[in-house]
Amino acid sequence: MLTQKVDMICEKISNIDKLTEKLNKFDKTVNSMVKSVESINKRVDEVEKGLNFINTEFENNKKDVREVKKKNLTEIRSENEEAIETIAKLQKDFDDLNEKQLDQQTRAMRENLVFTGIPMHDKNELSDDTEKIIQNFMTTELKMSTLPEFHRAHRFGKEYTEKHSDGSIKFITKPIVCRFVNYKQRELVRKAARELKDTKYGINEQFPKEINERRKALWPHFQEARRQKKKAFFKRDRLFIDGNEFLPKNNTHRVMDTDERQTRSSHPQKDQGARPKEFNQPKNSQPRRGPRKGPH
């Protein structure tokens, strides 16, 4: 009986030893896990610190970028505004120079008239022959007994072919530019142009190409005003209707003051113009010969 109890006690002690051993192992395991958790916590803290540092740097960089962007945009806007102002000034200066050049060209053409519809008898017509044709034209067609004096006359521009109804050639013509000795002499011829009504001939003032284009754009409005029995007339590249200047939409060119009016023809070549040869000569150059004048 006693022996059995002793054996039981020994067995229990042995179990207690085993349990103690297991507890020791478990304790070691727990301690190891605690150390691991502490290590993990430490690493997490380091990661958090790193993330906080990155976030701080990101915010700082973001702020710097905003400031740089704002500064650059401000500078770019300022430079852009300055560039726009400079371009606008250059454009204005260019427009001013262009208008001055047009004005000089127009003044140089002030004594010129362009005759259209006068047939060519020879494609190689000489200036001397052209001048005689103009003299004869002013006598026969304009009914002028006293012929105005002019410096020279010559053909220019494109040929125009007038045809019969069957398609055969009636005559070939090119415009003639005639430079009179002064504006008064020119106006005598222009006023006599009323004799050309309902004929194939036309007499027009000569203008630079750009002025002609402006006048051409206004021409339909001029015709409409005339159809409505309104008083309409041109002053160089400006149209006046019933005493008021007509300004079409999108009108961007600058206008110029002058008292010249336009004489139009029904001929297809109306509105043609070209610079007289004198315009390209040196300032001190003289006409190649004296003014032409018909018999009185």
Topology:
Blueprint: H1 2-108, E1 112-116, H2 127-140, E2 150-155, E3 160-163, E4 169-173, E5 176-180, H3 183-192, E6 202-205, H4 209-227, E7 232-235, E8 238-241, E9 244-246
Keywords: Coiled coil
Organism: Mytilus edulis (Blue mussel)
Region (Disordered): 248-296
Number of strands: 9
Distance between the termini: 180 Å
The profile of the biggest β sheet is:
4 strands, antiparallel
Mean pLDDT: 82
Summarize the structure in short.
This is L1 transposable element RRM domain-containing protein. The protein is of the alpha+beta class and 296 residues long.
Could you explain how this protein is built, in words?
Residues 66-107 form a coiled coil. This protein has helices at 2-108, 127-140, 183-192, 209-227, and strands at 112-116, 150-155, 160-163, 169-173, 176-180, 202-205, 232-235, 238-241, 244-246. The strands form three sheets. A four-stranded antiparallel β-sheet has the order 2-5-1-6. The chain has a three-stranded antiparallel β-sheet with strand order 7-8-9, covered by helices on one side. The chain has 296 residues and is an alpha+beta fold. Helix content is 51%, strand content 14%.
